[in-house]
Write a structure and sequence with these properties.
This protein is mainly α and about 210 residues long. Helix content is about 55%, strand content about 5%. It contains eight helices and two strands. It has helices spanning about 15-30, 30-45, 65-85, 90-110, 110-115, 120-130, 135-155, 200-205, and strands at about 50-55, 60. The longest helix has 21 residues, at about 135-155. The protein is elongated. The N and C termini lie far apart (about 145 Å).
Length: about 210
């Protein structure tokens, strides 16, 4: 058996290519980038109020009374991003809620995480609201081919019906038109017998038989 006819073993298949194709189908069937940006916007809002920064050996704690609000807004942004991934039907609600939460985080959560969550949140919310599912031309083409195959099978199953004999149209006799009879031309005056002659001129000219 040559290498051209050898069957590929399942364990030797390209796992990276299969994973990438699955990820591509997942990404195209939902507002992927909008949800991703919403989750990215929630990270700085959630992180900075509870972070401890060290500047020259001095630890700076940013935990203030806005920490609870920052926690709620950050968690909600991450949840909305995941909702847009796994429930694309509610993408409009998720996009509107993401935009509003990012705007509320400006006065509540350290200017929206020092401005790091402002642009990703607004862009992500807009992408979620604007996303629409693409049509599937392959499915439409397959449906059209199936309909054509069904029509052909139905046409082959139907018996051929001979066309009915068309009765011949009866011959219609043409009407006979009587030709006009030519009127007898009047005889010339020389041929007509003279008025008052009892015997024609021809009989007078013939000899009489003697007895």
């Amino acid at each position: 058996m040559s290498s051209a006819t050898a069957e590929a073993r399942p364990e030797h298949r390209n796992l990276v290519g299969a994973f990438w194709r699955g990820f591509r189908d997942f990404r195209r069937s939902r507002p992927f980038w909008g949800g991703l940006l919403a989750m990215i916007a929630g990270v700085p809002i959630l992180y900075f109020p509870y972070a401890h920064l060290s500047l020259g050996g001095v630890t700076i704690a940013m935990s203030t009374t806005a920490g609870a609000g920052s926690l709620i807004i950050g968690v909600l942004l991450i949840i909305l991003g995941l909702t847009a991934w796994f429930q694309p039907a509610v993408r409009i609600f998720a996009g509107v809620a993401t935009t509003l939460l990012v705007l509320v985080s400006i006065p509540v959560s350290n200017l929206a995480g020092f401005g790091m969550a402002l642009l990703p949140g607004l862009i992500g919310g807009g992408l979620m609201m604007a996303w629409a599912k693409l049509p599937e031309p392959a499915v439409a083409a397959g449906a059209g081919a199936a309909e054509a195959t069904t029509a052909e099978s139905v046409a082959t199953e139907e018996p051929a019906v001979a066309p009915a004999a068309v009765p011949a149209a009866p011959a219609v006799a043409e009407p006979v038109t009587a030709e006009p009879v030519a009127e007898a031309a009047p005889r010339p005056a020389a041929e007509q017998p003279a008025a008052g002659a009892s015997v024609p001129a021809q009989q007078a000219a013939e000899p009489k038989e003697v007895r």
